[in-house]
Amino acid sequence: MKVIPLAADSLGVRSMATYVEAAATGILIDPGATLAPSRFTLPPATEEWDALRRANDRISAYAARASLIFISHYHDDHFRSDPSTYVGRSVLAKDPQRMVGGQQARRGAELWTTLAAKAKPMVADGYERREHALELRVSPPLPHGVEATTLGYVVALTVTDRHERERFVFASDVQGPLSSVAAGWLMQQRPTLLYLAGPPSYIEREVGTATIERGIDNLLRVIDATGCRVIMDHHAVREAAFGARFERLWSTKRVVTAAEYLGVPISALESQRRQLWTAVARKPAERAPRTAGPRERAADRAERRATLDRPGKRVADDGNGKRRRTS
Q: Fewer beta carbons within 10 Å, N or C terminal of the chain?
């Protein structure tokens, strides 16, 4: 089984987009990516916009390889409204009419209207499918964080390759999990690899330290009960001090960020937004290039004509904005 995080907060953007390949089936999970419009009262930095472009390119590339797309809920960082992503594919998506409210209900309804003419949409909540070596199982709606949260509900996906005896569980925004119901469902699945959003320590002042600690305790319970490896990302890495804050989890040696799972440096850009903008403010102004004089301009024109008119040589564009000679 291949599990490839395509975009994540530890890779520079708000996302949990993931590609899974199991029993010759390609599954694209939560194909969305966004940036926080304001953090520390600052807009996204240039580095974040660059990371978002790269993330969207990766998601689009893997969408072309997937036969199934899964959507856990309707927050903008977890799905795309662009219909081209879904054309001709089976789409397993959160029921837009069950345990969904506010903006999510509107977005979900709009997406399903679009999907009806472009793809094969199926209600994900409670879905089960078993064929050959592949088994898919979707949870009932689980709290997006704490019980009775106003943030709505998500559905989690279990992908099992029975030949390889691998079981991957994708639990998106359970935030820890903060809910004991979500923790119980995760333990019941007995994952070998679990990917979830960690506790939202970046808003710890609002939700309280006891809530964050409960998320840590619940994940430790899941690890103890199942022995699984864990990719913990998303909300958990939006605070600059996330390394120290979640030391109880990292120290188990079973929990890593999406970047670490891929073996690349952590680039949690949102948590570094102040530093990114400070670096821009401190950067010295570039010296304006010296304007060529009349003689230099005339010499340059003559040299270009000589190059273009040289017998047996042509100058062609190589498609990358550079010019090369061909004979």
A: C
